[in-house]
């Protein structure tokens, strides 16, 4: 494998913090989170935010109790700075629906766990997987993806994090990031900070939560799993393209993959020039999910002349994107999320919209992809 040089290139750009968002774009989300069709909830439409009422507030509590319980199970693992007890910014779609920033982050974290659970045994033939992973060493990629998600889905403490909610911590003031994470080397018990940047509260890519049976409005931050919500279809496929499905949980999942302890446990090679740091990097450009699709194409088409294109299992958004896509594919019964790629191999002869269970033991062919192999 040849990831070391790639990781060095990343380190040059981001010495300590791995960021979500593209610093080359001044407004990374304004044009990203829209579908190919006319989007009735285009970014900037804030009128719907006022549509919550007391019945929604009442229903919200049922969801919140479940989500708080989920975070409580990770007591000591998932922590919140006192500044996360501040109210949600008034210009956010979460304002009036959630009281504090911590409330929103608990819901988003619970969503990240849900996304990881959905994909922890993802099939190598799943369309969602083939949209984001492939090229050289697909077995190693699959192994890394499954182990990364298992490390998030399980209640075993494979990492320890602190959400910091000042909105300006870390590198937040410098880029249009919604969040950034301390990706420096450490043990599972070392607390690493995830800074939640101000754009998190208003970005088109983070203003929605995953579907909840008991909460379908207001929108944002909720959508029903119907044709007027998440599940608009064209034929047997999603009407919307992948970018439409970016959620706050997608962003949190992205940030988690930057954590050294988690990525190291998932089998990612460390960068020998950076204390063997193993967390994922941000190698793609463009919008989040669509950018991850484009990254795979770039990786697969690389003839060796481009030293800066990392394997997708070293790109944070590739994980966030595949889990998000498989979740909505399963929720809505989509055969495929746009842009359509269609069958790519004979394994697609009988495509399934649900993840295929895999044996608990690691297949021998995957066991050869051990950390440190080069
Ligand atoms: Zn990132």
TrEMBL record:
Keywords, alphabetical: Signal
Region Disordered: start-end pairs: 19-45, 342-374
Signal peptide: 1-18
Organism superkingdom: Eukaryota
Amino acid composition bias (Polar residues), ranges on this chain: 24-36
Gene Ontology terms, MF aspect: metallopeptidase activity
Coiled-coil ranges from the UniProt annotation: none
Record protein name field: Lysine-specific metallo-endopeptidase domain-containing protein
Organism, as annotated: Polyplosphaeria fusca
């Amino acid at each position: 494998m040849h990831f070391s040089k790639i990781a060095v290139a990343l380190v040059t750009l981001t010495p300590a913090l791995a960021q979500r968002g593209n610093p080359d774009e001044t407004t990374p989300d304004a044009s990203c989170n829209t579908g190919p069709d006319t989007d009735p909830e285009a970014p900037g439409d804030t009128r719907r935010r006022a549509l919550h009422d007391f019945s929604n507030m009442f229903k919200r509590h049922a969801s919140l109790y479940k989500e708080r319980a989920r975070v409580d199970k990770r007591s000591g693992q998932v922590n919140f700075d006192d500044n996360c007890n501040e109210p949600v910014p008034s210009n956010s779609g979460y304002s009036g629906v959630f009281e504090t920033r911590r409330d929103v982050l608990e819901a988003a974290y619970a969503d990240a766990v849900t996304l990881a659970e959905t994909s922890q045994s993802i099939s190598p033939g799943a369309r969602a997987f083939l949209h984001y992973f492939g090229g050289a060493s697909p077995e190693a990629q699959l192994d890394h993806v499954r182990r990364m998600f298992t490390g998030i889905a399980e209640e075993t403490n494979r990492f320890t994090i602190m959400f910091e909610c000042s909105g300006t911590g870390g590198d937040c003031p410098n880029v249009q990031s919604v969040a950034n994470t301390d990706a420096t080397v450490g043990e599972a018990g070392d607390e690493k900070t995830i800074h939640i940047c101000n754009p998190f509260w208003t970005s088109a890519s983070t203003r929605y939560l995953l579907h909840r049976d008991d909460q379908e409005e207001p929108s944002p931050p909720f959508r029903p799993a119907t044709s007027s919500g998440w599940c608009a279809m064209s034929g047997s496929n999603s009407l919307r393209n992948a970018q439409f499905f970016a959620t706050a949980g997608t962003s949190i999942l992205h940030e988690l993959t930057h954590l050294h302890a988690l990525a190291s446990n998932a089998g990612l090679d460390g960068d020998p020039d950076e204390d063997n740091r193993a967390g994922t990097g941000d190698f793609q450009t463009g919008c989040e999910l669509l950018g991850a699709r484009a990254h795979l194409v770039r990786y697969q088409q690389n003839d060796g002349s481009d030293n800066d294109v990392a394997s997708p299992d070293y790109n944070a958004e590739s994980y966030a994107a595949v889990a998000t896509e498989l979740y909505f594919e399963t929720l809505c019964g989509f055969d495929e999320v746009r842009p359509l790629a269609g069958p790519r191999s004979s394994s697609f002869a009988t495509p399934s919209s649900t993840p295929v269970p895999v044996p608990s033991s690691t297949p021998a062919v995957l066991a050869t992809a051990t950390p440190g192999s080069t």
